[in-house]
């Protein structure tokens, strides 16, 4: 990560060229970073190669010598915002908060203590201003379209024993399942018929799903639908991540969950923080759209821990950030603990948007589980993605990573986006005719009246 010194972004035509450029520059002793591409570049390649201003001319010469002439170069400019501070606000907030807002307006990087302040303040006008700033940055960086993605939870077997998780290996109270390849592809076909462009293949860390089996699924999805694929299958060796990328995986979600090493060790009795960190670095190096996230309300977690998580997302150039409250799961050591706080989770969503700017932030299923309205609240706090649960009904209740999971469906997503927050659904989405009807009664449908 580069501070203060002017830097530039090299924009490749696609992810393969981006990796070639990055490797070429590193080989010639030019320090680079892989970061989310700026809004004006669109979606051609979601990752940019960042270089210091002092290395710009050498980088240009190397690209020219290698015959890479289509790459574009942009100055890495600050996102400047006007109008966050008005006279009325100045009378109702602290001087410290005004200083932080001025930084946000100017596009300056927030320090750890700034992030802690935003997460900690209990002044209503300051909290309102935080959400307003997050929503403004969301609009400026990723626009008004809420991305819709479909998830398939294809196995609930897991070799790990995370203390908060209901599918931990030692939990004997749940019914285990593995979907067949045919079942997976049937759901993929349905998602494709809706026009969805991304399918999320998620499971526990299941040894049955070996690299060849995963690769076979990846190739089938690509060959039959051309959809983008997000994998969320846990920690794997570098070689497997590399082969999954070659076979068609575009994104990978591997949550850090907490950056506090001691807390990580406590909640992951058979895991290692440095291994998780190394996996995230490998995924970034391999050119994945890199996903991470954290859990709000873990026992012993502090506001400083959450601030550290947000800094990690920023400094690692994470592209997708899932932020959800802790929810107890039956059969886990934490089953009797209190759920995480919705308000703090929403505040974390907002501050993450402010700090990380152009990233995908889902309005998580966990939030929707604690309150049906929380999904809407998260969209207003800076979130821009909704994940539909498309696991077959006969398996859904067994993917019990936490209790009473809200199975967010297409109707819930359409209601949240169009009716509740007046945002836009993606143009690729093919809605059933009844959902296109502006007079459709969502409330009555949810209550079983239609």
TrEMBL record:
Domain Radical SAM core: 144-364
GO MF term (any one): 4 iron, 4 sulfur cluster binding
One GO term (biological process): sulfur compound biosynthetic process
Cofactor(s) for this UniProt protein: [2Fe-2S] cluster; [4Fe-4S] cluster
Pfam family, one: Se_S_carrier
Lineage top rank: taxon: Bacteria
Assigned keywords, A-Z: 4Fe-4S, Iron, Iron-sulfur, Metal-binding, S-adenosyl-L-methionine
NCBIfam families, per database record: rSAM_HydE
Protein name as catalogued: Iron-only hydrogenase maturation protein HydE
Protein's organism: Acetivibrio clariflavus (strain DSM 19732 / NBRC 101661 / EBR45) (Clostridium clariflavum)
Phylogenetic placement of the source organism: Bacteria, Bacillati, Bacillota, Clostridia, Eubacteriales
């Amino acid at each position: 990560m580069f501070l203060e010194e002017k830097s530039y972004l090299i924009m490749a035509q696609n992810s393969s060229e981006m990796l070639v450029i990055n490797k070429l520059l590193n080989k010639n002793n030019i320090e680079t970073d892989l970061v989310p591409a700026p809004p004006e570049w669109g979606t051609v390649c979601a990752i940019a190669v960042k270089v210091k201003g002092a290395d710009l001319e050498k980088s240009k010469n190397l690209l020219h010598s290698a015959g890479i002439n289509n790459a574009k170069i942009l100055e890495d400019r600050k996102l400047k915002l006007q109008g966050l501070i008005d006279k009325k606000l100045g009378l109702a907030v602290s001087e410290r908060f005004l200083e932080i807002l001025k930084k946000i307006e100017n596009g300056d990087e927030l320090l750890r203590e700034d992030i802690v302040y935003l997460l900690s303040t209990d002044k209503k006008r300051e909290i309102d201003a935080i959400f307003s700033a997050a929503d403004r940055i969301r609009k400026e960086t990723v626009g008004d379209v809420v991305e819709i993605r479909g998830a398939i939870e294809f196995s609930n077997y897991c070799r790990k024993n995370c203390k908060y998780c209901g599918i931990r290996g030692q939990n004997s109270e749940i019914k285990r399942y593995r979907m067949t390849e045919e079942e997976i592809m049937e759901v993929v076909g349905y998602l494709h018929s809706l026009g969805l462009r991304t399918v999320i293949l998620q499971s526990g860390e299941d040894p049955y799903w070996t690299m060849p089996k995963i690769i076979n699924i990846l190739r089938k999805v690509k060959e039959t639908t051309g959809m983008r694929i997000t994998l969320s299958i846990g920690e794997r060796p570098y070689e497997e991540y590399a082969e999954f990328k070659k076979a068609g995986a575009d994104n990978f979600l591997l949550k850090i969950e907490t950056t506090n090493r001691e807390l990580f060790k406590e909640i992951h009795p058979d895991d290692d923080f440095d291994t998780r960190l190394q996996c995230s670095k490998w995924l970034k190096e391999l050119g994945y759209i890199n996903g991470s996230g954290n859990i709000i309300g873990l026992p012993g977690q502090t506001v400083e821990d959450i601030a550290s998580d947000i800094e990690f997302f920023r400094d690692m150039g994470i592209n997708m950030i899932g932020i959800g409250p802790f929810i107890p799961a039956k059969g886990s050591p934490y089953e009797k603990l209190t759920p995480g706080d919705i308000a703090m989770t929403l505040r974390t969503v907002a501050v993450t948007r402010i700090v990380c700017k152009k990233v995908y932030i889902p309005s998580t299923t966990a939030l929707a589980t604690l309150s049906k309205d929380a999904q809407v609240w998260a969209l207003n706090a800076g979130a821009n993605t909704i994940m539909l649960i498309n696991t077959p009904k006969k398996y859904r209740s067994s993917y019990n990573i936490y209790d009473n999971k809200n199975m967010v469906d297409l109707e819930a997503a359409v209601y949240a986006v169009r009716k509740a927050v007046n945002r836009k659904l993606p143009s690729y989405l093919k809605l059933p005719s009844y959902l296109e009807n502006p007079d459709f009664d969502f409330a009555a449908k949810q209550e079983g009246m239609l």
